[in-house]
Amino acid sequence: MQIYLPIAEVSVNAFLLLGLGGLVGVLSGMFGVGGGFLMTPLLFFIGVSPAVAVATGAAQIVASSFSGLLAHLRKKTVDLRMGTVLLIGGLAGAGAGVFVFNYLKSLGQVDLLVTLCYVVFLGVIGAMMLIESLRAIRRARKGGPISRRKKHNWVHGLPMKMRFRTSGLYISVIPPLLVGLAVGVLAAIMGVGGGFIMVPAMIYLLGMPTKVVVGTSLFQIIFVTAFTTLLHATTNFTVDIALAVMLLVGGVIGAQFGTQIGMRMKAEQLRVLLALMVLTVCSKLALDLLIEPSELYSITAAGGL
């Protein structure tokens, strides 16, 4: 069943969109990521322009993340105080990111920017997560401790400390603010929730327990992506409501299944799966940049639409 997407200006199978939304929803519930790192490239592959994919992908992330967050709130695995600090930085970063996005869009360079950002960030982070997770699994098989994160590192020497009781931490608010700021910028430019950066940062930089990280990540993602969607809708007019609704329906349903799956798997196994998925998407995007397109020239408006 084909449906026409008015803003994206393409016709797509409705069941394909529901399936994509469901897949991203499962990832959201399992890993505590918005899933935009996978959704946005997949929208590229089915013919949606990067500008529309980024803005509309952010809208889909809101619903799938909210569904997953509800499940974690019931299990009391959300650090609301830490999430609020991350959110403050995220809102500031989103505002700055949309400004950069709009400027490059006016120059007609936003498509290249989005693709290059995906290749660089996904490649680096995916490789780091995979290496660390495999080491943790090897240690577990040998009977050693799964993780040896230091209780005290340079983060604990910074000023402006705050106690985060749910996470069992007493650290400076500066690192969480900076993590939130970076995630906000990426949400605006790449149409992602930023969980693929925030989750590792919360575990390895801030030292948060893995069981709390997923729910806290979803809490921040919801508000930052909602703010990003609003900015894109009012400044770029690139949010396709028909596309967003189809993705939302699949995403909300998938997130509930993903949360149940994630609770049954070990933290190290979840990180390996997430790393492999990140590297797969990165490889596909990099390949598309290197392979010569079938049509060397195309006529588009300056805004990339």
TrEMBL record:
Q: Where is it localised?
A: Cell membrane; Membrane
A GO cellular component term found in this entry reads: plasma membrane
Q: How does it sit in the membrane?
A: Multi-pass membrane protein
Task: Tell me where the transmembrane regions lie.
Answer: 12-38, 44-71, 83-104, 110-131, 177-205, 212-231, 237-258
- Any single Pfam family the record assigns to this protein: TauE
Keyword Transmembrane present in the record's keywords: the answer is yes
According to the record, the signal peptide region is none
| Keywords per UniProt | Cell membrane, Membrane, Transmembrane, Transmembrane helix
Q: Which PANTHER family match?
A: MEMBRANE TRANSPORTER PROTEIN MJ0441-RELATED, MEMBRANE TRANSPORTER PROTEIN YTNM-RELATED
Q: Which family, according to the similarity comment?
A: Belongs to the 4-toluene sulfonate uptake permease (TSUP) (TC 2.A.102) family.
Q: What is this protein called?
A: Probable membrane transporter protein
**Lineage of the native species?**
Bacteria, Pseudomonadati, Pseudomonadota, Alphaproteobacteria, Rhodobacterales
